[in-house]
Amino acid sequence: MVIKKESDLMSTVKARIQGNALVVTIPKFSKVKAGTEYNFNISKNGTLTFTPTKEEPTSLKDLLKDWHGEYSLPEDLEDWQDSKPVGEEIW
């Protein structure tokens, strides 16, 4: 498996057995978030391709792009909405 760094250098990793699975460790420099889900493909020549099942939003606009509802403040936060600082809080 080949992971690209920001500088487009490649890194070599080794597959190992863990329980009933074969595991390939992804180096931290790849900045892959734990829990990210991937589709997996093996080509005829043995190349492994991992493609994220969904794109992670990179902005608030991207995060909310498919949301068309109205925002309603949760009840437990309503009392805080009009609160004024009482100490040295930055509001």
Descriptive labels:
9% helix, mainly beta, two-stranded antiparallel ribbon, 91 residues, single chain, 2 helices, Pemi-like Protein 1, Chain: D
Topology (elements, then pairings):
Elements: E1 2-4, E2 10-12, E3 15-18, E4 21-24, E5 38-42, E6 48-52, H1 60-63, H2 75-78
Antiparallel strand pairs: 1-2, 3-4, 5-6
Protein name: SpoVT-AbrB domain-containing protein
What is the CATH class name? Mainly Beta
Q: Please identify the structural class as seen in this structure.
A: mainly beta
What is the rounded distance between the termini?
A: 48 Å
In which order are the strands of the major sheet placed? Answer: 1-2
What overall form do the CA principal axes indicate? Answer: elongated
How much of the residues is beta strand, in percent? 25-35%
How many structural domains?
A: 1
Total of DSSP H or I helical runs spanning 4+ residues: 2
Organism: Lactobacillus corticis
Protein name: SpoVT-AbrB domain-containing protein
